[in-house]
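Thread: "does anyone have the structure for this chain?"

Original post by V.I.:
We have the sequence but no experimental structure in hand. Need at least a predicted one for the grant figures.
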Amino acid sequence: MLLVLGSCQQDFNPGTNGSSLTVRSGTSFGMCVGYCQQDVVIDNKNTVFTKTSREPAKNPTINCQKQTDTGTWNEIATKVNFDAFQKVPETLGCPDCADGGAEYVEIQLNDSRHRVTFEYNKTIPGFEDLVSAVRQQRNAFADCK
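Reply from O.Q.:
Generated one for you, tokens below.
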């Protein structure tokens, strides 16, 4: 019986199914001029960073990409507990209220995905290490132009 229950769990094991996991993270600000949204998409092959504006004619979308370092990928992937993450509400606090900004982390495992949006520069209880790791990857693109 325990064997059957264990086979349903959707925790991620980077050694066996690394191609099935994608982690996304980003920030946005409602009352903003310029590039108001930043997103990063991380998988076992590439890390893609995108900056967008509400005025694309003035500020065209900017994309930067790099190969995902194996050590970085394993650090992020081992922090993923998809079953537990799916139990977190989709919205925490009051993201982007009074232009405080919003932040999100989204995990996609195979065909399932769950996004949690929370107040900028806060965290997701129980997933502090994951939030920190994906922020670090997003912030690594600060010079992307």
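V.I.: this helps a lot. The helical segments are 2-8, 14-17, 70-77, 82-86, 128-139.
O.Q.: and Residues 1-18 have pLDDT under 50 and may be disordered.
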